[in-house]
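Appendix B: complex inputs.
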Amino acid sequence: MNTVIDEHHTFQRYDKELLKLKNQVDKMGHYVSSQIELVLEHLDGDESTMDFDDVYENDVTINGMEVKASKTVIRLLAKQAPVGKDLRFIIAVSRIVTELERIGDEVVTIARSFSHQEQANPCMDHSSVSVSVASLLAAAKNLLDRALLAAQNDDVETATAMIKNNLGEDGTYNADTQQLIACIKEHHESIEESFNAALQANSLKRISDHIRNICEHTIFLVSGKDIRHLEGDLETA
Amino acid sequence: MNTESMTETMTETGDFAMSAEEKHVVEEDLHGIATDDTETVGKPLLAPEKSRMTCRNVYVYYGEKMAIDNCSLDIGKNEVLSMIGPSGCGKSTFLRCLNRMNDTIDICRVEGEIKLDKQDIHDPKLDVVPLRARVGMVFQKPNPFPKSIYDNIAYGPRIHGMVDNKSDTDELVETSLQRAGLWEEVKDRLDAPGTGLSGGQQQRLCIARAIAVNPEVILMDEPCSALDPIATAKIEELIDELREEFTIAIVTHSMQQAARVSQRTAYFHLGKLIEVGKTDKVFTNPEHKLTEDYITGRFG
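Resulting structure:
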């Protein structure tokens, strides 16, 4: 995104509008990341911290950010008739904003699943499971921060590497999610607890999908190549 | 409509099918934009069977000043090629090369090879007058002859010997005006002076005049710059229809117009042909930085 902002147009109002859009998506990304941090703080505490009202209120703010950014996108398309990298920037940002809003929704789903939980999730404590929902959520936050930084810096290399390595540096994120799902299948004696655990695992998987999408949108912004829905992986020449 | 029939419809129309290029992306394609201007990037040349006009190593000089620097470009059959670039970049000069209109400028010298259907247009044996019928031109300012609407259309076919009786001339005039989308507006006043029409109508009259002599190529030098948005829209619609019969090369200052009407776009900069490519690509993901800077309004 920085390349689009740093190279100025002759018509300076155009630059100001593009900068406004960039600031909106930066702010929204930071807010969603902080939202995950907030849920983790709650999970780190005792039962009294399982009241997630602040998380739910913040999600309303995140939704409002999406709407505002969308209005900026529409205004830019109507008034400036963007082409080239400006057009790709606007399209990529509008998509990233949607991904961030969806991540926010999944974080709320995870929060709600904990607030409905009366007993500890056996899949959080089972000795055969080396990860927990909280640690996966923390990993998701780190991945989101990396993906957003790559978008800000037009860093195709990082975005590409995150996709090729299945997001985690050693591909562990999705592997850990699968491990959690396997645990849920094994401990199906408590339907309600298993249902909650399944919701959490599903939300974690969806968060990873949205983060991957952010990487894809970054690649589109910089290179103009749309790598969504490829047959197989990104190829090396 | 059930899911199965929806899928069939999508596959049949091909609208939703991904191309082979879209399905397989190579990592090395994700990096870099050209900055060197010694060679034209993109696809300036076409397969021989697809070309109507070919230009190789064209140089144009006004006296000692070089206006076009080693340009090689093909214009395809039944395509609209738009030529864009800042003022003074050479796009109109290049356009005028294609029907030897630069011959009318004393200090202008053209070097290189330009062919129309594999025939060298600078061949001494070639008569330039019929060439300018085969490669017609429409100018920025509408310039109807100081004659009636009827005679504006009939004049060219008469002097080229294409018609020899009134009946054939009447038919040719009507057909030309219909193809230019002007017949219904002027059929009841063909004897009225062409200069009495509105700007948009005059320009369509000029297009009708050009197509009356059965050209193969129509050159348009900023045909809409003197027209209002409604007249412009009608000319653009006409260009879209004429493409089915003719090859069209259009110089335009409006990038939105170039994006709307053309299949390929050529970007000129300081006499050099910087980039040529499919219009969709040039306006969404150009290969050269100079092209990108120009189309996005980064003029320095």
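The radius of gyration of chain B is 21 Å.
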